[in-house]
Write a structure and sequence with these properties.
3 helices, 0% strand, 55% helix, elongated, mainly alpha
C-alpha cells in the first residue's frame, strides 16, 4: 500500500543513513521500526497487573526508620529468630 507521511528532516536523514549502512530501502527501515514499536507495545499490554499482598498491623511501628536499612534488617532478624 502506498501512503504519504511527514517526517522531521533530521529524523529522515538519520533513517536514510541507517538504510544505506544496512543496505535496506527507506521503506524497509521504517516498516521494521514500526513493527518493533508495535511488538513492544503488545508485550507491555499483555502484562498482568501486580497484586500486592497486604496485612493489617497498624502501619509503621514506633522506632522503625525506613531510611536505615541496617536497622530494618536487624528488626526483621529479631522477629524471625525463634529463640
Amino acid at each position: 500500500m502506498r501512503t504519504t507521511i511527514r517526517l522531521d528532516d533530521a529524523l529522515l536523514v538519520e533513517i536514510k543513513q541507517i538504510a544505506a549502512r544496512s543496505d535496506k530501502t527507506l521503506t524497509s527501515v521504517i516498516e521494521d521500526a514500526l513493527r518493533e514499536m508495535l511488538a513492544r507495545q503488545r508485550r507491555t499490554e499483555k502484562r498482568r497487573p501486580v497484586k500486592l499482598m497486604t496485612v493489617s498491623g497498624g502501619g509503621l511501628q514506633p522506632g522503625v526508620d525506613l531510611d536505615d536499612s541496617a536497622a530494618l534488617l536487624s528488626l526483621m532478624e529479631e522477629f524471625s529468630d525463634p529463640a
